[in-house]
Design goal:
single chain, 526 residues, nine-stranded mixed beta sheet, 13 helices, 35% helix
């Protein structure tokens, strides 16, 4: 019988090959892999990130005691401040409510507060209709949907929590829902919403040394301030959840917010290694600057939260690689075990793709209830989403009507302050400052380089720009005076502005050097 089965399997494997072999191939072009990056740069990055992931995993799995685990957690907490920078001073929230919606089993308040001076955050507060005392509070961080808090899956997350006794606050991230930063004359998106605005904002902020992910995290931390200001909320039981871009937000807020006792990032946590190998695009706020240089993997953003309640929400067919999610869980579970808190960590995997289905929501609520000491019905009641406009705080659906301060207003102010501080250096002083800022090695000559033809047919770079590859080893060029025109690289190399494609770096070294820490003026945007 086994022989018959083997023959059938072998026939199934060979049949397509044999059928194809009998068909003549006429003018069949050779198929080249259309990669998002030139192969050399991509493989270089993969090697570097694999080295970080390997070292991170080895270090975690080598932890052998509670004391070692506590030291590791404390180290990562300290490093998060280095990655995300200093936080602003807490200004008055100036919170106000514009209206209330009565729904089956819960109430929705349309609220607004200022996370920075005159920088409003629009939100919806979901309150259980039959609460009999302070209840656990949960932030619902939105994915990259144009509707923000009004997207149906965000409403369902908040409703599911409120129907089971939690207080939930769903808020609009920057560039989504009612919080467009670049609206046109009619209040509609000028550069696009969601990730388009996020990346647009980051390109301006990175020039003044800011990380857009920190701005998003700060909004969430101030949302938590508002949540604990409500008498209906138990400040000792606080959680956060979100899916996709909301999973990103959940992770970076969890990394920096010590008040949280529960966290449930959805459809996001994998490993930097898997993302890099899969050439998965990432948005500006998803790549904290310097995190790889500090030897941290993606799951390290959740380490500061240990030993509090955590559940990783995943789906088998998600483009956030399930293998990386399982690897993240394995390493986090090792630390939880050393801390004697195995029951505080859970893992959910569904059969679908990138989404937030009912079973995922039920798993999140059940874990939060267990961590909070609550008894709830396991099954989620029937939920109905409101029209997006019914949840608006503003009349037009955009905070532009409030004449708020925008992200680029803050960036302009900081840029002008930095310009006054640095003056107008030139000549050798300018060169010295740039060399110091970029931490360039000492050298007496221009680097050796090659001039390449453009990759215009693959979309790798702008067709009107030249492409240069810098070599690690200098050639036999004679030394020239630094002031000699012959010692300088062509003007295009010295002044060429980077395009969307990164110039690949040729390395003649067989070894992979340690990942450097990023300067605060730069960030990777995947």
């Amino acid at each position: 019988m086994m022989r018959v089965v083997r023959c059938v399997v072998l026939a199934l494997i060979l049949a397509p090959t044999c059928a194809w072999a009998q068909t003549p191939v006429v003018n069949m072009p050779e198929m080249q892999p259309l990669n998002r990056f030139p192969r050399m740069m991509q493989e270089y990055l993969v090697r570097r990130v694999r080295a970080v992931e390997s070292a991170s995993a080895e270090r975690i799995m080598d932890l052998a005691s509670r004391d070692e685990a506590e030291a590791y957690i404390a180290e990562r907490r300290s490093q998060m401040r280095e990655v995300f920078g200093e936080w602003p001073e807490r200004n008055p929230l100036n919170a106000r409510t514009v209206g209330t919606l009565e729904r089956d089993g819960f109430v929705v308040e349309r609220v607004i507060f200022d996370s920075r001076p005159n920088f409003p955050v629009t939100a919806n507060l979901y309150l259980p209709a039959d609460a009999d005392g302070p209840a656990p509070g949960v932030l619902v961080s939105s994915g990259h949907s144009r509707e923000g808090k009004g997207a149906d899956y965000n409403q369902f997350l908040a409703q599911s929590l409120a129907r089971r006794g939690f207080v939930a606050l769903a808020y609009d991230p920057i560039g989504q829902g009612e919080r467009l930063q670049y609206p046109d004359e009619e209040g509609q998106e000028r550069v696009g919403s969601g990730t388009r605005e996020h990346n647009f904002i980051w390109r301006q902020q990175c020039l003044v040394g800011e990380f857009f992910g920190s701005w998003r995290a700060w909004d969430g931390m101030r949302a938590l301030d508002y949540l604990v200001s409500r008498p209906e909320v138990d400040a000792q039981r606080l959680g956060i959840t979100g899916v996709s871009g909301g999973g990103t937000l959940t992770s970076i807020i969890t990394a920096n917010e010590s008040r949280l006792t529960m966290s449930a990032p959805g459809c996001y946590i994998t490993t930097w290694r898997r993302e890099t190998e899969n050439e998965l695009p990432a948005d500006a706020e998803q790549m904290p600057p310097g995190i790889l240089g500090l030897g941290m993997e993606m799951y390290d953003m959740l380490v500061p939260h240990i030993p509090d309640g955590l559940i990783l929400l995943t789906e088998e067919q998600d483009f956030f690689d399930q293998r990386g999610s399982l690897e993240a869980h394995e390493r986090l579970a090792h630390i939880y075990r050393l801390m004697g808190a195995e029951d505080k960590l859970a893992y959910y995997v569904g059969p679908g793709g990138h989404s937030c289905p009912q079973p995922m929501r039920e798993a999140m609520v059940a874990h939060f209830a267990a961590v909070s000491g609550m008894e709830i019905d396991a099954a989620e009641p029937e939920l109905v989403a409101d029209e997006d406009a019914a949840l608006w705080w503003t009349e037009s659906g955009n905070i532009g009507e409030l004449a708020p301060t925008t992200c680029f207003d803050f960036t302009r102010e900081l840029s002008q302050a930095l310009a006054q501080e640095r003056g107008k250096p030139s000549g050798d002083e300018l060169v010295a400052r740039v060399v110091g800022l970029l931490d360039l090695p000492d050298r007496e000559d221009e680097p050796e380089y090659r001039i390449l033809r453009g990759w215009s047919n693959r979309g790798y770079a702008r067709p009107y720009a030249s492409h240069f590859v810098r070599l690690n080893r200098s050639g036999t060029r004679r030394r020239s005076s630094p002031n000699s025109r012959m010692s300088r690289a062509p003007l295009a190399l010295r002044l060429h502005k980077p395009s969307a494609a990164t110039v690949p770096q040729c390395s003649t070294s067989p070894t992979v050097p340690a990942m450097p820490r990023c300067a605060r003026t730069s960030a990777s945007a995947g």
